[in-house]
Fold Large ribosomal subunit protein mL39.
Amino acid sequence: MATRAVSQVLRRRFASAAAAVRPPGAEIRSQRSAVFSREQARQRGLYPRIEKIEVSMQGPGLDGTLLIMNKGVSTPLSCARHLTEYHVTNSALALVDGELWPLQQPLTHSCSLTLLTFKDSDPTPVNQAYWRSCAALLGQVLETAFKDDFTVELLTTPEVPVTSGAFCCDVVLDPQLDSWTPSEESLRSLTRGAQQLIHQDLVWEPLEVAPSVALEVFSHTRCKQEEVEQKAARNPKGTVMLYRCGDHVLLSGGPLVARTGLCSQYEVTALHTLGQGAWGLHRRAQGLSLPLQLQAHHTVWRKLRQRAEKLVRTTKISEKKKGSHPPHEGQTIVF
C-alpha cells in the first residue's frame, strides 16, 4: 500500500513538472497529427502497385454481389459507394470475414464484407461503437474547451455498455480547477462544442500502428504512454489503434463509427468528481446521444437526460480521499 501511494505521488509530481514545460495545446495537436500523417503515408506506400482483391458482399439484397477492389487502398466505404446512396449514408461499421472493421480502414485481402447500420436486426456492435465514438467526441471537446489557460489530461476512456445510460470520458483538469464544478451554462458550452464537430461531419480516420509510433504521438503525456503499453501488451498482434478526427488523435479500445455526422441529438450532461487518482483529481464527464437514424421525442429525451446525469460507476472509479477540496456548485468557467 505504501509503495502504491509513493508511486501515485511520483506520478503526480511528474505530471506537474511536465505540465510546466508542456507546449501549447495547438502545438501538441499539430505534432500528433503530423506523426499520424507520416505513418499513414508510410503504410500506404507499402502497396506501390495496384493489386486487385475480391470482396463478396453480404446482407439484405447483396448476397452474391462481388466487387473487385484495390488492395490496401479500398475501404468498406469505397465498397458502399459502388452500391447505393442508402449504403453510403447509413453504414456506420463493417464486418470483414466476421471481424468488426472501421468503415474507413483499407482492406488488405479478398474477403466477405457486411455493412452494418443502426437499424440492423442486432445493432449491438454498432451501438457500442457509437457509444465509444460519442465518448471520443467528448474527449476532443474537453481537450480544447479550456484553450491554453488550463491543462487537460485525457485518461483511459472507460468502456461502458449503452444500457449504462451515458457515455463517459475520464479526465484530469488543471490543479487550479480542483475546486470547480461546472454550471449548467458550462455544460451547455461543452454541448455546443460537440455539436459544432458533428455539424462539420468529420471523419474518424483509423490507423493501426506499432507501439513506438503511438508513443511518439503521445510523447507529451506519460498517462497515454502507459495506456499505449497496456493496450499493446493485451493485443495478440502487439499493435494499438489510433483514430484522428480533425487534428485530434486518440487511442481507442475498439472500433469507432465512420464520422461525426452520424450523431444527431447530443448533450453533455455531467462532470462528476471521482477523487484523487494516479494523475491528480480524476473526473468523469458524461453525455447522452442518439444517432441520426434514431430520434427521440423531447419528453423521452428529458427522461433519458435525467438518467444520464447520474454517475456511471465502473470498477476503475477511485474512492474519494479524505481532505479533498469540495467543489463549488454552480461556478462558471468561460470556455
